[in-house]
Amino acid sequence: MVVNHATYRIVEYIIMSRRTRNEAKAILQSELNKYRHKSFESLRKLMEDLDAYEVRGPSGTLYQLEVQAMWDNKPGGNLRVMAGIDDGGFFSALAPLTDSFILTPDGEFLGE
């Protein structure tokens, strides 16, 4: 088997993603948990302007996070807040880790 630079980069990505996957999941959960403490109205504003920022993990890896909101089933109803995280790599940027929660206008979490 001939190992060229492209093959090496793919293998490097796979190895790196295995190492950082658990770290990224933990950061995603921690960051999304901060949004669980916000009001429905505050979260609704994420529909107009998503939050995008960076967080450095304990390993030193710099992660990009995006948090946005959308109506879950109908306008004016429940709000789905979704967050995604990636490490800036090509493949992880195409398919970031994601998680979400659904909040009712009354402030209750659905499906938990």
Description:
By secondary structure, this protein is of the alpha+beta class. It has one domain (5-110): Pantoate--beta-alanine Ligase, Chain: A,domain 2 (2-Layer Sandwich), CATH 3.30.1300. The chain has helices at 5-36, 40-44, 90-94; strands at residues 51-56, 62-71, 79-86, 97-103, 109-110. The protein has a five-stranded antiparallel β-sheet with strand order 1-2-3-4-5. The longest helix has 32 residues, at 5-36.
CATH first level: Alpha Beta
The count of domains is 1
Average pLDDT works out at 85
What's the arrangement of strands in the largest beta sheet? Answer: 1-2-3-4-5
Q: Which structural class fits the helix and strand makeup? A: alpha+beta
3D shape:
elongated
Q: Low-confidence parts, pLDDT < 50 over ≥5 residues? A: 1-5
- Number of helices, where a helix is a run of at least 4 consecutive DSSP H or I residues: 3
Question: What is the first-to-last residue Cα distance?
Answer: 49 Å
> Per CATH, which architecture?
2-Layer Sandwich
Structure summary, number of beta strands: 5
- Sheet with the most strands, sense and barrel status: 5 strands, antiparallel
N-to-C order of helices and strands? HHEEEHEE
User: Roughly what fraction of the amino acids lie in strands?
Assistant: 25-35%
CATH fold type? Pantoate--beta-alanine Ligase, Chain: A,domain 2
Secondary structure: helix percent: 25-40%
